[in-house]
Structure formats: C-alpha cells, structure tokens
Structure to design on (489 residues):
C-alpha cells in the first residue's frame, strides 16, 4: 500500500494540514457538503490548517431528477451535471474509487485512474474527519437475462444511451420487413413504478410519439409501452389518489400498466411476467429501487439491517467519533415523525437539507461548539408524466396535469445546483418551447473509434444481431460496457 500524504494535488513539500476532512462521494451530499465547508472554513483553508479532500469516481455531480428530461432531449445531458473542479475550487479533488475504510486507523483505501499505470497498488489516505456519502446503486434481483439485457437509469450515460436506443429501435422497425423484429423493436418494458421508472417512461413515450410523425410507416399506436410494478400502486410518495390518477393518465396514452406483477425473465429478448404474459422486446429498463453502495460493507462502521450507516440526528455515525454521513447511505432518525424509530427517506429533499446541518456540525466540531440536530417535516412530492403532465402532493395539497408539471419544473430548477446550470436549463426549456424537438440518435458516441478501426483495417470487436456495435446498438442493446449497471446478478 502507498501512504498518500498529499493526495489530490496538494503542493509537494508542503506540511500536512492540521485537519484533513475526507469526503467520499461526489454526488448530491458529497458536493454540497464540500461546497458549504469551503465557504465556512475559508480562513482555515487559506492558512493551510484544514484540507478538504473529495474522492469521487466521476469529476461531476449528476442531478438525477433531470435524467428523464435529458433522455427525452428536453435538456442537454451536459447541463444536468455540475463540474466539481470548478465549484469546489478550494477543495482537493481525487478522481478514484474508495474500496475500503478503516476508521479505527483513520485511513481510506482508494483506487485512482493511475493505480494500474503506476503498478504500486491502491493508495492509503489518512484523514481526521470522514464524510461518507457514496450514494446508492441499482437494486437488482437474480432474474434470468437481466444482467445481459437490462438497462439501468441512474447515470447520465445511461440516460443518453437509452434515448439513442429508443430512436434506433424505431429506425429498426421502420426498415425491417420482419413483423416479429418490428414488434420487438417497438415494445418497451419498464420495471419499477417509482419516480425514476414513471418519469423516464412518461418522457420517452412523449418523445417517441412525437418522433413517430417523421416515420412514414410508424404510427404512435404501433408503439407498445409496458410498466411493471410489483405493488398495487405507482408513485406511492404522491399519495394513493394521485397514484391512481397517474395510472389513468398513462393508460389513456396507450401505456400498459401492470400492477402487482413482477418480471420473471428477460432471456432471449422475451420479457416474461408473473401474470403469464410474454412480450418479445429489445428494451427492458430496470428502475426497481436502489440499495446502498457496496463500499459501506467494506468499513468498520455500524450498519442497520438494510445496509445503511446507523446515524444520529446530528448526522454523526452512531457510537463513532469523527465520522459523518447523510443521504442515501445514512439511516438518519426522523425526529419530526409521530412514530418512534422512523427514519428519513433517502431522497433529494432530505439530502439537500441534511448537507447544511452536516457542514455546520463539522465546522462546529472543529471549533468545539455544540452540534445541532437535523429536523425536517416531509413536504411532499412532485412527479412529471411527460410534457405538460404531472402529479403533485405538497403540504397536503393535490395537483395534477399542467399545474403539477409546472410545479415539478420550478421545484427542480430551484434545487438544481449553481446559477450557471439553472440559467442553462431555463434557456433550453425556453428554446424547446419555440422550436421542434430534436429526435436525432447519436449512438455512435458510445463507440467513437469504431469507424476508424474499420478504416484502419481492423474489425469491430462486437457484432450484434442487427449490425455492428459501432452503429450504437451493442450486442445486448445497452450501449457500451461503461453504461451497464455495475451490480447485476
């Protein structure tokens, strides 16, 4: 192991700061906590007394609520991500992945992009305060064929890949004379009736229905959209009444909503459901929940039964000093709940507010001041069902249709980090209202060297059933290996 005394770009020869705050994860919690800390500790950072080191796999933070709109082409994918180096300019940023944490020794084991090149093994980074915010990953089940054919929807790369894939399936259907291939290409199965699944389906169905007008032999009625949900309702966060309205709205748009139904297999490009239905399809989108990042099991910190860190209302890890957490990775008690033992839901609404208390408490801890507890009464939820359609249940008030859709947009625009990104998203919405939708597939972006390799006398490394993978349609219909879910069975 290599002892990294000055990781993340600290000046060689400069003494180690008195306090190193290690932030693991560059998502919502990691970025906002580091952003608030660099403001609160500006003087200490300037004097070299404190260092904030952020370890993250990607050099950007993805605002996930906008992924469905990015997939539908309403927002440019680059505008739903926030570049960390520009926003965290007073922090040290290390692009890599933490694989283990030994809090007893105050060290974290990290693989960086240069680890393999150096041949020296992973780095061991010492720290004084730990903020553990690795987020979550897709929760998958051992369903036959899922690892080979399923498409995830948690990353911006997956959103781009899914958009390209849907348009390419319409191209395949338009150009084939085989009715079986055509039907499979125009059948889209979404598994999971939460926010991610419903919003992704709603936006993409909207986009595909619009795109159909430019195909001489495809009508909107030819497209088959299927939503599979294991429970008896969708969007439980917006309440039963609004959930039922969402089902009616989707069914009115020719979406086949299957409640109390499970996906049992998707081998050989056939989606088999628990009710006995079989749908030949080239598209299975898996959005059936998330689970904590695997890193948590590689620590000596206490976890609850669901694999999340046991935390206090002060956002400290229970029974441990100098360790903090919030967001998806943390089981934080909800002190506003009537029922004892209730935990805060792992959603963006709590995560954003938790980061403020978390940063304040870390700064207070460094100066010996008392900590405060996190307290927030759940305000409700909003969800989009496509352009000009939505549902909302906020502070006891229920909205549907255009008002709910507008509230959804305004709420998430307000929550989007940085003024720069807010302005860009608002500008794109304005332009989208003035001009027609973009319906171009850029699937070749997933294999940028394919054409050059062919021209240079090489051969394409993978040949799918419908053509070379350089066309953007890989052998399993999911884009490049980078885009695949990382926790498949």
């Amino acid at each position: 192991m290599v002892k990294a005394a000055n990781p993340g770009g600290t000046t060689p020869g400069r003494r180690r700061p008195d306090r190193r705050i290690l932030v693991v994860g560059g998502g919502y919690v990691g970025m906002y906590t580091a952003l608030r800390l660099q403001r609160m500790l500006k003087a200490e950072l300037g004097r070299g007394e404190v260092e904030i080191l952020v370890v993250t796999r990607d050099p950007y933070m993805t605002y996930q609520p906008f992924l469905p709109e990015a997939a539908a082409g309403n927002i440019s994918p680059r505008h739903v991500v926030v570049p960390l180096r520009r926003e965290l300019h007073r922090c040290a940023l290390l692009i890599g992945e933490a694989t283990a944490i030994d809090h007893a020794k105050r060290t974290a084991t990290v693989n960086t992009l240069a680890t393999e090149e150096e041949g020296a093994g992973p780095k061991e980074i010492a720290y004084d305060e730990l903020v553990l915010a690795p987020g979550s990953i897709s929760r998958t089940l051992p369903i036959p064929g899922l690892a080979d054919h399923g498409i995830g929807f948690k990353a911006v790369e997956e959103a781009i890949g899914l958009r390209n894939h849907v348009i390419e399936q319409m191209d395949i259907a338009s150009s084939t004379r085989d009715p079986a291939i055509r039907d499979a290409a125009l059948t889209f199965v979404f598994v999971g009736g939460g926010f991610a699944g419903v919003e992704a389906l709603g936006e993409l169905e909207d986009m595909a229905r619009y795109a159909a007008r430019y195909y001489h032999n495809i009508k909107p009625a030819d497209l088959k959209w299927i939503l599979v949900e294991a429970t008896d309702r969708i969007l439980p966060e917006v309440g039963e009444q609004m959930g039922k309205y969402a089902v009616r709205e989707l069914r009115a748009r020719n979406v086949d909503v299957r409640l109390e139904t499970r996906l049992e297999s998707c081998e050989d490009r056939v989606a088999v459901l628990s009710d006995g239905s079989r749908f030949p399809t080239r598209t299975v989108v898996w959005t059936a929940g998330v689970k904590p990042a695997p890193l948590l099991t590689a620590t000596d910190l206490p976890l609850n039964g669901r694999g999340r860190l046991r935390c206090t209302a002060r956002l400290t890890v229970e029974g441990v000093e100098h360790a903090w957490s919030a967001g998806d990775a943390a089981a934080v008690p909800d002190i506003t709940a009537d029922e004892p033992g209730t935990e805060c839901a792992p959603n963006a609404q709590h995560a954003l507010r938790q980061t403020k208390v978390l940063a304040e408490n870390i700064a207070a801890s460094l100066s010996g001041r008392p900590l405060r507890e996190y307290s927030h009464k759940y305000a409700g939820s909003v969800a989009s069902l496509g352009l000009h359609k939505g549902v909302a249940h906020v502070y006891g008030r229920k909205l549907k249709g255009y008002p709910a859709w507008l509230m959804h947009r305004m709420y998430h625009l307000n929550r989007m980090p940085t003024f720069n990104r807010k302005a860009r998203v608002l500008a794109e919405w304005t332009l989208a209202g003035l001009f027609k939708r973009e319906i171009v597939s850029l699937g070749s972006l997933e294999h940028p060297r394919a054409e050059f390799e062919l021209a240079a006398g090489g051969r394409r490394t993978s040949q799918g059933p419908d053509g070379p993978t350089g066309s953007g349609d890989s052998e399993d219909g999911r884009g490049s290996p980078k885009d695949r879910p990382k926790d498949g069975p």
Notes: Residues 2-138+291-366 form a domain with the FAD/NAD(P)-binding domain fold (CATH 3.50.50.60). The two ends are 31 Å apart (CA to CA). DSSP finds 14 helices and 27 strands in the chain. Confidence is low (pLDDT under 50) at residues 1-6, 8-13, 462-489.
